[in-house]
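Issue: copy button drops trailing tokens. Both records pasted manually instead:
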Amino acid sequence: MSIRSQGLVFSALAWLSLAVSLILPTLEVQAQLALLAPIILLLGVPHGALDIVYVRQAARIRSASAWTLFTIAYLAAAAAVMVVWWIAPGVFLVVFLVISALHFSGDPQGAVSPFLRTLYGVGIILCPLALHSAEVYQLFAALAGEAAAKSIITAMQWAAWPCVAAIGLAAIIGVKEDLARSIELVSVTALLVCAPPLIGFTIFFCCMHSARHVLRTRDYSDAGTLSHLARIASWPMLATFIGVVIAWWLSGGKPVDTRIAQVLFVGLAALTVPHMIVVERVRLTGWAMGRSTSKSSIA
């Protein structure tokens, strides 16, 4: 599958999901978390397990000692995020939202202006606030407490509809240049505005962000097949599952929905920081940089 085809498939899925959501009753947030967290873990998180592809090809890490140092640095960056959440959850949430917007801004394919990338990344964060600020507040409160959540929602909510309008205008203007990209922009925005936040985020994260990253990694590494990438990701994913089990055990005593929200989103934040350190360098220098490295270099 090409990246262009993946974007069109995602767009069709987004609109289908919105149509289905009009028919089915909306589940309570706790039920949504219980249902969607495993999906995010199984389909969304694995794209980060492919960081070792970029490290081997971009940084030329080969020796056991170099891999040991990389692993320690990666885990230390993740641990630092969790310490920030523990000490200052409000600061953690603000930083998490900012880095998420920066990271998601890399999704649009091709020569995209910095303004449009920024608008896209910020839109992923702001669009759910247009119609679902109460649900977003519940999630933010589970991560940072009610006072911080209220302050953050108040600071951001005013910009939700202007952001939606700006994305719509950008999509219209960009139709002649790249119709598929405009379809993606409208589909992502409609999904995140209209669908319940957890459902919209899950579909976006798994079927747009993660799927696109996997395809780019396939092309970057010349791996040839997705099954080859799955073998590469297997050990990092096993370590991630173990970490989730430990985090769940350590969070005992809290309400179930709070535990799931904290394990899921604090865990995502902890993994996003080292993931960005690895991947953003490659993105900013061009995804094609690694194609000169043969498949055998990551076998």
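Record 2 (pasted manually too):
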Amino acid sequence: MRVVAIDYGRRRIGVAVSDPTGTLARPVETIAGSDDPRTAARTVLAAIARLERDDDPVGTIVVGLPRRLDGSANEQTPLAEALAAALEQTGGRRVVLQDERLTSHEAEMRLAERQRDWRERKRRLDAAAAAVILQEFLDGNLSRGF
């Protein structure tokens, strides 16, 4: 079973998926975001359904949990928590929150190494950030079998 990670934003939602062994993360797509976590959950579940049509089933969904650098909640934190709750209620899968501090910055740095066009980097940033979130989750849970 694979793991999917979500970088939730009101404008855009980044989606990343693991390989079947749960070792490597790769960005998949950026989908339209929403102010309403329930609407976002439906959009995310539709994206997961598209992934499962082409490959192995998804067993776990990792939702990036935004926090300030000091670890305190910010204005986006309750929305990510509400998305995780909505996914858990409707998705029938295990949902895990993963700290996402500095993941967008790391994703931007990685993209900048390969992609000079800032418009292309911006288009791919949310999915790349989701891949960073997922890789951190996978690395931290490799021995536990998530």
